[in-house]
Design a protein that fits this description.
The chain is 40% helix and 23% strand. By secondary structure, the protein is an alpha/beta fold. Strands 1, 2, 3, 4, 5, 6, 7 and 8 form an eight-stranded mixed sheet that branches. A hairpin with an 8-residue loop joins strand 7 (227-236) and strand 8 (245-256). The chain starts with a helix and ends with a strand.
Length: 257
Amino acid sequence: MKDRAKIIRRMGFVHDQEGIMNRYLGESAQWKHHLEKTRSFIAGSFSGARADSVAVLGSGWLLDVPLDELRQRFSQVFLVDIYHPPQIRKKLAGTQGVELVEEDLSGGAIDQVWNLLRKYKSSIPAARLVEEISLSTPASGIRADALISVNLLNQLDIILCDHIRRKLPFQQELSVSFRAAIQSFHLAWLTKKPGCLIADTQEHRIPHKGQASSKRLLYTDLPEGIRRDRWEWDFDSRGTYHPGSRTRMEVQAVEWA
């Protein structure tokens, strides 16, 4: 456990999570629509599902999680993330029917990337590093009948790719194939049970001067599902994420049986 804590801190997962809250505090009015849409979509899911328990994957600060509604619908709620902020642990301590689970939702890629880079340092080609990674279902603490993936899918690989780039030359084509593998694997095991997913699909950068640009954030196809929605998220209005630019995300939500 101490080794895992060191790894996720050094790779930047804790810093990233703290950054989410800091950005929210500065953008709460702009995030309001996105958070309400996310919570509403989740709360409206599972009306016909036979499920007594649910796992929320990527629960984080619970900003986008309708926990009260989930507790009313399910007898057991598992909140799953790579790291739970101390504030959330304190807030939920002793809450009946809620269990916090710390789990690598990338399919085990975090430990493997860390260990391979420690073993070979800069001598391992990035292509071989990617080939050596074997993904496995993160099932150790997820015993739920239904699954929710919350603004997680395109986040699973970002910090991993950034960490690899700090250590090795990591070409764009290889990065895309690595991201696609992690995202596709997440969907493959996620959709084996009733569930829903909310994910950023496109990032739009609108500079104060100059031409706007966009980039894709998903490298796999979302399931067709039985219910869908989409909206825009005014992610950064102050130009701190991309200096000098406003950033908006396109978001899609899908539920499957």
